[in-house]
């Protein structure tokens, strides 16, 4: 079972995870009972061995990945290499997911802008066009108060607005 939640948070500088984050190295603890850096999280653990690797892409560290065992001296150099490799793969997957989310938001914003500009292009009347911008903005962005000020003779003049009860001033 894989869970994805922030049940325990370790703040630097404390423990093995903080050292892995600071140094970017894999730490193999052969016996948690004798290693002073080991900080049990939550309840008392029966875990005796701990292997922690950075989740990193290049020099950018995003977190840690760890495995535990109830047996002392459970992890080998091969296990260290494997966990370090998994940490790099996890970092790439995390960065890709973040980039995908950013691109998804940008695509949504571009689509919203297209919805705003399409009706504007077809309108020649300034008042109608500004009203369409206000309506589209309130609909797409769910804003209660929207205004458009235009520069006229070195002053900003309210030319369209929605949600205000009083006329807007000249700025």
Q: Could you please describe the fold and organization of this structure?
A:
With 171 residues, the chain is α+β, with helices and mostly antiparallel strands. The protein has 3 helices and 5 strands, in the order αβββααββ. β4 and β5 form a beta hairpin. α2 (77-121) runs antiparallel to α3 (126-141). The protein is elongated. The chain starts with 14 loop residues before the first helix and ends in a 9-residue tail after the last strand.
Summarize the structure.
The protein is α+β, with helices and mostly antiparallel strands and 171 residues long. The protein has helices at residues 15-23, 77-121, 126-141, and strands at residues 27-29, 49-57, 60-69, 146-152, 155-162.
């Amino acid at each position: 079972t894989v869970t994805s939640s922030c049940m325990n948070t370790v703040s630097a500088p404390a423990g093995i995870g903080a050292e892995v984050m600071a140094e970017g190295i894999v730490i193999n603890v052969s016996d948690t009972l004798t290693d002073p850096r080991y900080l049990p999280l939550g309840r008392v653990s029966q875990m005796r061995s701990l292997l922690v690797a950075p989740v990193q892409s290049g020099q950018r560290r995003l977190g840690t990945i760890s495995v535990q065992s109830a047996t002392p001296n459970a992890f080998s150099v091969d296990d260290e290499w494997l966990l370090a490799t998994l940490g790099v793969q996890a970092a790439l997957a995390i960065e890709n997911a973040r980039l995908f989310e950013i691109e998804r938001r940008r695509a949504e914003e571009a689509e919203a802008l297209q919805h705003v500009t399409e009706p504007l292009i077809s309108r020649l009347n300034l008042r109608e066009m500004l009203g369409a911008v206000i309506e589209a903005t309130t609909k797409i962005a769910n804003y209660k108060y929207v205004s458009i000020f235009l520069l006229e003779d070195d002053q900003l003049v309210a030319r369209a607005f929605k949600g205000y009860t009083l006329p807007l001033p000249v700025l």
